[in-house]
Amino acid sequence: MFQKILIANRGEIALRIQRACRELGISTVAVHSTADAEAMHVRLADESVCIGPPPAKDSYLNIPAILSAAAITGADAIHPGYGFLSENASFADMVDAHGLTFIGPSAEHIGMMGDKIAAKTAMAAVGVPLVPGSDGELLDLESARETAARIGYPVLIKAAAGGGGRGMKVARDTSEIEDAYRLARTESRTAFGNDAVYMEKYLDKPRHIELQIMADNHGNVVHFGERDCSLQRRHQKVLEEAGSPAISAVQRDALGETATAALRKLGYRNAGTLEFLYQDGQFAFIEMNTRLQVEHPVTEMLCDVDLVREQIRVASGQLLGYEQRDVTFNGHAIECRITAEDPVTFVPTPGRVTAYHAPGGLGVRIDSALYAGYFVPPYYDSLIAKLIVHAATREAAINRLRRALDEFAVVGIKTTIPLHQRIVNDPEFQAGDYTIHWLEKFVAGG
Ligand code: ADP
């Protein structure tokens, strides 16, 4: 087992990983930008190293500075969290080349799944169903037209290197295909430095259902069930549930069997998430994330498992030590992503938190690095807290979520707590009756 882990991240996820390390008796090294010198993840770490100025490219994405910090402090492994360097295959390679362990999958699998065209090809080859679409990259407008005619409008043009919902354009009919194709390419080039695009059938009423996987280095793979992440704004998740109100235990088992068999064939290791769109009783794979997800806590509450602890254990070479039949699913869990944004306009609201009171009580969990007096910096993601509730039934979880949101006080900056309060009180949400398009309409007042 590792003695010391460097956590190459900030905010709530850096704290989350520290907590798992501490419970395993592993010391922690925090890295931080000059803007984060007072941050909670720095205060609570055993050691900390400043790795650069505020912009992420000079600090949290500064590979030489992070590797130097690991060398200076004598860390033997690096946990990347999510975002930043977590899906950077060459970083994973460099960590290994420096004699450290990267807590995550192999660089080869990170690279494969980071290219969504390669990911779809690999998944199809091991028996995972896909959303109908182009056979690989769209090389020109003509092949975009032909593919759209073959699969039928509406279609979605997506960036091969995509992430965060960027580089995606819908074409509803032939008149829109040229603009969609050109815009998707331009946006991909600007956002990802890579203008390869592909096409999928645009599904009109899917749910986003994803499956949590964990694999050791010895060929054992289990799943921890599904999460329903259909509540999205601009293709970004806002609220997540485990399990999905739309999926039965039989469907969960079947999907889990397909996914774990596929990853066993690929020789995948550590944590991963397979994302699917679910419509008319069919699951279709869209992408795989080769890292811990923001929404992992709902799975942890449902299955009573510490996924970060499992990541660390298997990265150190330990066996999973349990089988699929040992994984149990109890009750229902919901997570709200609370961001420093105006709850109506979604304009970011960095600034000083003058007072802070987090909810508590039975079945309530807060993953956050906030404290009274903290200054939310303008440089990074606006996520400031995740509120997670767990209860015996979905209805009880919703009631618990409502009262926890009512207790939650973040003073000094605007947050999206009022948006979550509105969602929780909505009858359609309460009925579990929503698709990926629901929240956009809800926010627009429709
Ligand atoms: P990213 O990596 O940018 O997040 P994804 O491929 O994971 O992109 O898609 C993000 C979201 O976009 C999905 O959760 C879903 O809401 C929507 N989406 C993606 N593909 C389709 C599709 N073929 N039809 C309809 N919606 C889609």
Per-chain topology:
Blueprint (H helix, E strand, L loop, with lengths): L3 E4 L3 H13 L3 E7 L6 H4 L3 E6 L10 H11 L3 E3 L9 H9 L3 E2 L4 H8 L1 H10 L15 H11 L3 E5 L9 E3 L2 H19 L4 E5 L5 E9 L5 E13 L2 E7 L6 H18 L3 E10 L2 E8 L6 H8 L3 H9 L16 E8 L11 E2 L2 E3 L6 E5 L6 E2 L6 E9 L2 H14 L1 E3 L5 H8 L2 H4 L7 H6 L3
Helix pairs in contact: 4-5, 7-8, 12-13
Adenosine-5'-diphosphate binds next to strand 8, strand 12 and strand 13.
Structure description:
It contains 15 helices and 20 strands. The protein has helices at about 10-25, 40-45, 65-75, 90-95, 105-115, 115-125, 140-150, 175-190, 250-265, 295-305, 305-315, 395-405, 415-425, 425-430, 440-445, and strands spanning about 5, 25-35, 45-50, 75-80, 100, 155-160, 170, 195-200, 205-215, 220-235, 235-240, 270-280, 280-290, 330-340, 350, 355, 365-370, 375, 385-390, 410. Helix content is about 35%, strand content about 25%. The protein is an alpha+beta fold and about 450 residues long. Helix 4 packs antiparallel against helix 5 (about 105-115), helix 7 crosses helix 8 and helix 12 (about 395-405) packs antiparallel against helix 13 (about 415-425). The strands form five sheets. Strands 13-12-9-10-11-14-19-17 form an eight-stranded antiparallel beta sheet. A five-stranded parallel beta sheet has the order 3-2-1-4-5. The chain has a three-stranded antiparallel beta sheet with strand order 7-6-8, covered by helices on one side. Adenosine-5'-diphosphate (ADP) binds near residues 163 and 286.
